[in-house]
Amino acid sequence: MALDQEMKTTYPFSAIVGNDKLKLALILNVIDPTIGGVLLRGPKGTGKSIAVRALQGVLPTVQVISDCPFHCSPTNKANQCSHCKLKENPPIEERRMKITTLPLGATEDRLVGSIDIERIIQHGIEAFEPGILAEANQGVLYIDEINLLADHLIDDFLDSAASGWNYVEREGVSVAHPSSFVLIGSMNPEEGDLRPQLLDRLALHVATQTTLEPEKRAEIIKRNLEFAENPQKLVEKWKSEEITLVQRIQNARANLTSVIVTSENLELIGKLCARLKMDGYRPDIVLTKAARAMAAFQENSEVHVEHIRECTGLVLTHRTREGGYVDPPTIDEIEEALEAIQ
Amino acid sequence: MISVEQTYLGLPPPFSSTVGNEQLKTALLLTLIDPRIGGVLAIGPKGTGKSRTVRSFRHLLPKIPVVDLNCPFSCPVDLALACEICGEHIRSSQLVKTKYKPMEFVFLPISTTEDSLIGSLDISAAIMNGKVDSRPGIFARANRNLLVIEEVNLLPDPLIDTIMSVIDEKKNRIEREGISSQHPVSTVILGTMNREEGDLRPHFAERFGLSAFTRPSDDLQDRLEIIRENVPALDREYALQDMFVADQQLKETIHAARERIGTIRHKARDLKFVSLICEELELDGARVAEILYRTARSMCALRGASELTSTDFFVATQLASGHRTRKGGELPAPTVDELRDAFDRAIERDRLQTTENEANEFERHLSQIHQKEKLYQRKRLLGKFRICLVWIILCYFVLLVGFKTIFQGLILITPFILIALALASGFKRSVLDRRKHDESSSTKMWKKYYREPPWPLGMDHPLVGIIGMILLPASIHLLIIMLTHDLWTPLGLIPYLVIYIAILIGFRKRKGGRIPLHEIPTKYEREYEFLAEDLLNAPAPEGLVTHVKKDEAVSEIPKIDRDFLLAMKSESKLSPEWEKILTTLISYIPESFRSGTSLGTDYRESIYRQQVPLLKKSIHGQISTGAGGKRAQAITNLSKGRVIGWKTPGGRPKNIHLASTIRKAALRQARMMGLREIVKKSKEPFVRVTRADILEKRFLWKSRATVIFVLDLSRSMERVLTAVQEAILFLHQDAYRKRDRVGLVACRGTEAAIVQYPTTNINLVAKQIDSLAVGGLTPLPSGVLLAQKTLENELRRDRECIPIMIVVSDGGTNVPLPWHFRENRPRFLKKTYELWTGDGVKDAVKDLFLVAEKVRRAGISTISIVPFTPYDPSSSHGFSTMKGFQELTRGQMFMPSMEGLHLVPTIGEAVSRAIHMEKASF
Questions:
Q1: CA nearest to A223, candidates A214, A234, A213
Q2: Greater confidence, B381 or B579?
Q3: Chain B within 8 Å of A192 (Cβ-Cβ)?
Q4: Contacts of B228 in chain A (CB under 8 A)
Q5: Over 80: is that where the pLDDT of B701 sits?
Q6: Contact A143, A185 (CB under 8 A)
Q7: What's the confidence (pLDDT) of residue B835?
Q8: Rounded to 5 degrees, what angle do the CA atoms B87, B93, B94 make?
Q9: pLDDT tens-digit readout, B145-184
């Protein structure tokens, strides 16, 4: 029921015209949230935010401990707060992954959490009030205009984005809680670049562009108008496709761990990243995960070279090389390197 | 396989399974063996496993003995290092109860507030019970534990200041919110950082004893292993459980090394060698020598050896010098070749023998220490002498009494036997105690470092002992004999008995109670400090060569490579654990030491080195001390940035700092309750905040400069481009740290373009210059206008940023703006103007001045740089254009002096100096 309710209000994900790569990147993250996120880079009006908002419709459900303010997972003991670890039979709730938006003007208190003012004034209890990082646990954290986010806010969540834990030592409260989220950031490169450290935390990268084909443009306008006029009608129209997609994603999620990555393919990934002189090990890890998610999505039981090839465009094209001295590799360069290795 | 994974879920991956990062691993092990090394700073590019290695280090942390009092500071059983409560407990009780507690990680997130770090008022206690009590902060938890700071270079300055002072003092003083207390803090700090995001302040970097550089491995198998580890459900090549078992073994190795470290004898030569190395490498600061020595000693203990070798020193120097400044900050960290050279020189100096210089300062210092030792030996001898004396007197009395009846004799002898027993018990006790606790410490160490506690009534002095214990009771005895007129009266025993009982009671009340033996290492530690500090503080043997005994002379320093270590491995008898460590070491040493740093650093350094001699020290000093940093990171009045503390509001409070306001109210409430002795009975206590309690937020905002270079790309500028490029890179060290943004606007053809939006990635800006081509027209007004617009955008985004425009041009502009501002119509440049005609030039200069006016009104500081000195400045067209621009914008102008041949440093110098001046005056 909940699914229907949401589908009525959000733009159907499958109705988005073009932007295949963008859609793929988002879907891969939904299939395997440990991939770590997407950076959507492109000028205004290229459908970045609409795609993220539409993503809500295809997000799968996750299990959470219902009385935990940090939305701990009941199954993954590694990612539970100290309270949930002690619970014998925690009440479990099945809920849809949520998209939490981090507004640019957010304060530090709001982001990482702070002391609960109300409880302290009324009861004299020094309690912790969870922030956005707690809300985003087991969900999606969306930051529009991520390049304009104040530096000190970025500093605060850099560590959480990598480790999946948020350590809070503020105003006398000391809390550590899990905060593993899919980080989605959108930006307009004209307004300045991202810090390399943050860029590295965003696993995939999609450069969105304005579609130049007139037919497609017309289609976009048509669907947008339809949605503005009567959202339900459009949703109804796309319902079957949307359900198929959700089903596909769910299957992929279920089959993810059984997808085989042969050591030859692993070697290919390692060799490729080494040859392109990518910084750090994260590209290798993300590429493997993305290729696996892609194979699962395409209902293959094994990762093929094609999957890897397709993912390289998403994984490598924003990453610095040789300590920032060499530009991110272009698709051609990657192709060339792949050819050379094979 | 899956069940094993489940067992270890929630734990970081095992330390032993870490691929690569050998340097970091070694540094971590060494710090654990001797925590006084201070900590480890892991430096490396993103995604090289810094955090992963540090986090998995958790598995190796040993258990430490703490006073079993539930004290938040985990105090040791040592009066000097315990907090007040524990100290009182140790003083008052005879046998202090201890428990073993595992050392733990204490995380210090970047978002930490100062009150959480230091400790603050316990609001609940204040409201509920009216108690003004402190709630321990991070420092309290970090005492005798490990303080982990991820991304340490992003830590705000006020926090760094606090951390530095606490670490130096080894004490955390809380003087705030009506609380006044202090507690000891001795902690090991582990930090990770990525140099791309800026460097640490050199002063803070020094607080980390060691540094280790991480870099991605070139080995394909390593890469694959890492992928397998990080992507769940992939088959691994090893069983996770085996790795945890390996961790346990490593833990035991560390334990053994921690025990062994006390047995390593420190030699004057070793300490001297350390100071030689420091001198050869021109390392700054006095702490380095100590850390070097300690690290080498740990390395030696880790290896299971008892003599320090040059290898230990080499590894120690590698780890200790990577993050330190040299020669007052003028030299970068040494490369591995430099290290080797310095080692060779140090060894050479060490080897030179000069017997004449025996009596130099250093040796004299050493002899002083020997004297102290002798004094102690003499004291012990005197103690023995005292016992002999007692026995002689005893024998004398036995002989004297022997002629009387045996019964009467026994009465007389008994007190002396008792006294003798009392004297001997002091020694017996120590022997008995040792037997009891012998498992934890070696007998040898005990003998060497256990000191008798002082005797009661000052009886440790032999003379006092004789008077107090024999003459005093004897004279009373005599008095009693005289009074009773009976030589053999039993009453005569009383004085002896009184003295004996007094001694016994005195023992019980002896200060300090019994010191459990497992604290002996600490005692040793202090003993060592006493010796080592004296040695280290000795004036450095400036220019003097030392006497080194022939058999002690080191052999040629071996090149520490695979072969060397393999040879070493096969030669010596090694424990299997050590072999494992050695193998990990082998895999990292062949690489160049600095290979862990990003290429950027090397590049930067090469430029740095080129420029420093030309720039002279004054300018360099100005840059590195941050003369212009007045506002670089300032506590602002704007309600923006990171909240760093609170202040009392000046007028109407704007941004209320709630937590501290409530604390203040709670404190007031607690005091009131204390005064009126009211105990609150209400079940729902509340805080009543009044106007007087309200405190405002204090913000910290890193105001940064946004610098836009406007480059004239006419043909004549060709050779200036490299100079500009290097000038930008020159900004690197300073700008990056302060998050200054640098952008690039180029003017060529008929219009200007933003080559690079303002970015903190200065390498990128410098690189962009490579892509530029020169030649053609110069639309300088368009360039300036574009730069002005970009800066205004920046200002809109960050009101606090300092906009600076640097115009590098010879002033030969010839293309006006494409829009005619005065007439408000477009200009069709190609149609309207013949290229290079006078009209174009005239309009261009007019437009430039028009734009200059705009720039000034926008509040943008300008720096004009004319790269060539005209033959006659007063009549040069380009020069006077630039001069006009400078005057209109009220900016600064630079041009090389007439004899100035060094174009590169001139521009670099000009830019840095100008930016600093701008920032300071802003």
A1: A234
A2: B381
A3: yes
A4: 266
A5: no
A6: yes
A7: 52
A8: 120
A9: 899 998 888 888 778 888 888 888 888 888 776 677 888 8
Q: Within 10 Å of residue B877's Cβ, how many Cβ atoms?
A: 14
Closest residue to B117, CB basis, from A79, A169, A279: A169
Residues facing B646 on adjacent strands? B697
Closest CB to A323: pick one of B116, B232, B599.
B599
Q: Give the C-alpha separation, A26 to B453, whole Å.
A: 72
Q: Helix axis angle, B718-737 relative to B903-921, nearest 10°? A: 40
Mutate to test the interface with B, among A79, A262, A281 (most CBs of B within 10 A): A281
Residue B75 CB partners (closer than 8 Å, separation 6+): B66, B67, B69, B81, B82, B83, B86, B87, B143, B144, B184
Q: Which residue, chain included where needed, has tokens 């935990």?
A: A68
Length of chain B counted residue by residue:
922
A323 at B interface, C-beta within 8 A: yes
Tokens linked to B715: 């043909």
Question: Which 18-77 residues of chain A touch chain B by CB within 8 A?
Answer: 34, 76-77
CA A247/CA A262 separation, integer angstroms: 27
| Chain A residues lying within 8 Å of B660, measured CB to CB | 171
Structure tokens at B853: 């006016």
CB contact under 8 A, B116 and A120: no
Q: Is A179 on the interface with B (CB under 8 A)?
A: no
Tokens 């052999």 locate to B555
| Count of positions (residues) in chain A | 342
Q: Name the active-site residue from A195, A275, A282, A309.
A: A282
| Nearest Cα residue in chain B from A272 | B220
Give which of A15, A9, A58, A14 is closest to A231, Cα–Cα: A9
Q: Of A34, A120, A266, which is closest to B123 when you measure between CB atoms?
A: A120
**pTM of the prediction?**
0.65
H or E element in which residue B301 lies: helix B287-303
Give pLDDT, residue A142: 92
Whose structure tokens read 């002989």? B399
| Residue A157, both tokens | 């969540």
DSSP state, A36?
-
Q: What is the bridge-based pairing of β-strands B98-102 and B861-865?
A: unpaired
State the Cα–Cα distance between residues B732 and B725, nearest whole angstrom: 11
Per-residue pLDDT of chain A (342 residues), as tens digits, is: 444 554 456 788 888 887 888 889 999 998 888 888 899 988 877 888 888 888 888 888 888 888 888 888 887 777 777 778 777 778 888 888 888 888 887 888 888 888 877 777 777 677 888 889 888 888 889 998 888 888 788 888 887 887 788 888 887 788 888 888 889 998 887 776 777 778 888 889 998 887 778 888 888 888 888 888 888 888 888 888 888 888 898 899 888 888 888 888 888 888 888 888 888 888 888 999 999 999 999 988 888 888 888 888 888 888 877 766 677 888 888 888 888 887
Question: pLDDT tens for residues B420-456?
Answer: 665 654 444 444 444 444 433 334 433 443 344 444 4
pLDDT higher at B814 or A187: A187
Q: Pinpoint the alpha helices (H) of A101-213.
A: 108-112, 117-123, 132-135, 151-163, 196-201
For residues B626-651, one letter each, b for 16 or more C-beta atoms within 10 angstroms of the residue's C-beta and e for the rest, the string is bebbebbbbebeeebbbbbbbeebee
Strand order in the sheet with B696-701: B634-636, B696-701, B642-647
The H or E element containing residue B493 is helix B493-508
- What mean pLDDT is reported for chain A? 83
* CA B107 – CA B85 distance, rounded (Å): 26
Helix (H) or strand (E) holding B636: strand B634-636
Could you tell me which residues come within 8 angstroms of residue B610 by beta carbon, excluding any fewer than 6 positions away? B904
